[in-house]
Design goal:
- It is a single chain.
- With 203 residues, this protein is an all-beta fold.
- The protein has one helix spanning 10-15; strands at residues 2-5, 22-33, 36-44, 48-53, 55-56, 77-80, 84-86, 100-102, 109-110, 132-133, 146-148, 155-156, 169-171, 178-179, 191-193.
- The longest helix has 6 residues, at 10-15.
- The protein is elongated and about 65 Å long.
């Protein structure tokens, strides 16, 4: 049996005679799957948000509906476990102190506004399993300096990297069939590799 308790309270519970069960300190936990309990989330006391389970994450129509949104100012690391196939719209929006992200090869899409407003994120490794990057997925990630878009990606949504003002290098594969309007609006790219022929305007 595991007892989930607030950060810094383990000694209090042990003093009350809870020595024979597993006590786990955390900021919060719950479910976040498209089918309810197929995915779970846990936010540890050190700011690590872990998503685990199997299948797709729920989509949210507004940021305040994301279950960990109220904790966004304390999320420094996101660890998406293998088995998660998609991450919902706005999942990590405005996580301003987020600096590290792990995305497994089971994830096939970077959804709309997924990392929008993550102003401390400097880099992210997009796995080869990803085939699409949604609208505004990384918009306003002002510290993001470089990104390699995997060869399997066929579409980049509108404003996907808009206002990523520190972005100076991006690798774009030839297999892209769609580049949304303003995908790199407000970005002064010094190096672009393998840009597709006749894309939609990206600057």
């Amino acid at each position: 049996t595991t007892l989930h308790v607030p950060c810094g309270t383990t000694a209090l519970y042990q003093a009350k005679g809870w020595q024979n069960i597993i006590i786990r300190e955390e900021r919060g936990h719950g479910t976040c799957g498209a089918e309810g309990k197929n995915l779970t989330w846990t936010l540890s006391c050190d700011g690590t948000l872990t998503i685990s389970g199997s299948g797709a994450m729920a989509d949210w129509s507004s940021s305040d509906k994301v279950p960990w949104y109220s904790y966004r100012s304390s999320i420094t690391t996101v660890n998406i476990r293998d088995g998660v196939t998609s991450v919902g719209n706005r999942a990590f929006i405005d996580c301003a102190v987020l600096t590290s992200v792990t995305i497994p090869n089971s994830v096939t899409s970077i959804d709309n506004c997924m990392f929008a407003g993550c102003t401390s994120l400097t880099s992210v490794e997009i796995p080869n399993s990803v085939t699409s990057i949604g609208a505004s997925a990384f918009s306003n990630c002002v510290e993001l300096s470089s990104v390699d878009i995997p060869k399997g990606v066929t579409s980049i949504g509108d404003g996907a990297f808009a206002n990523c003002c520190s972005l100076t290098s991006v690798v774009i594969p030839n297999c892209l069939s769609s580049v949304g309007t303003g995908s790199f609006e407000g970005v002064d790219l010094s190096t672009v590799f393998s840009l597709i022929e006749n894309p939609s305007p990206i600057f």
